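Lab notebook, bench 4. We co-purified these components, and the gel suggests they stay together. Before we commit to crystallization screens, I want a quick structural picture of the whole thing.
Request: model the full complex, all chains together.
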Amino acid sequence: MEAIGLQHYLIVGLGLFCLGFYCVLTRRNAIGILMGVELILNAANVNYIAFSHFGAGSYDGQVYSIFVIMLAAAEAAIGMAIVLGLYRRFRSIDVARMTQLQG
Amino acid sequence: MEGLSLSNAAFYFLAGLTLFGAGGVAFSRNIVYSALSLMASFMGVAGLYILLRADFVAGVQVLLYVGGVVVLTLFAVMLTQHIADVQISNRSVGTLPSLAIIAAVFAVMAKAYRAAEWRSAALPTDTTSTYAIGNALLGTYVLPFEVASLVLLSVLVGVVVLSRREPDAESGRTE
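Here is the predicted assembly.
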């Protein structure tokens, strides 16, 4: 069994990114798309922390990941509020039906 | 050797949990199951952070993602539920083209990872991650830290404004 190195973590991050990207591409449900975005942001965080542990020799990567988590939480809160507002307006959260700017 | 193989086993278990949860998010037909798989995936990522000696970030991950974002997602799912599980697939980008796209992305990136020469340096062991992050946040990164507080304040106000129920929202259109 080989030792776990940087590449193993990068592959996990890549897998997370690909699954999140698939989610964003295929979902029509606005909440599903937001979940895909969260997965993509987590993939970025895994990469940051893996590089911080194996490559940088400092804790800067962990600080960046704190900022990413903060922005992801803000994005989720705003996104869900917008989704609920759209649901009240259109009675649907299907993004294919949200085609007007001014209702 | 024993400890090494134990941490290897922990890594494979946590990576499996993470990717399995992410697969559940991406492929589940039911949006509630997707949200619960998202929680499993976030827990797996938190475990990976602990393996990478990022215990503070792991705690933040559990508090903010598992305790905050997933609960928020579940709230949104519950509040819009009877619409949520009608149709979840996308007609403009089908399943097969999407699978092809992500397979291509995965193959290219994995090849690039294998080809790259990564710099390697170990984390300093004379300090703990919480101490180092606290010092960095109030030292080098104090400006982004303060801007983050402004961002969070504006998000707070924005969410209140967005989710306020308009008086005539029930009738459909507001003039």
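The CA atoms of residues 55 and 137 of chain B lie 16 Å apart. Worth comparing against the SEC data before the next meeting. The first helix of chain B runs from residue 2 to 27.
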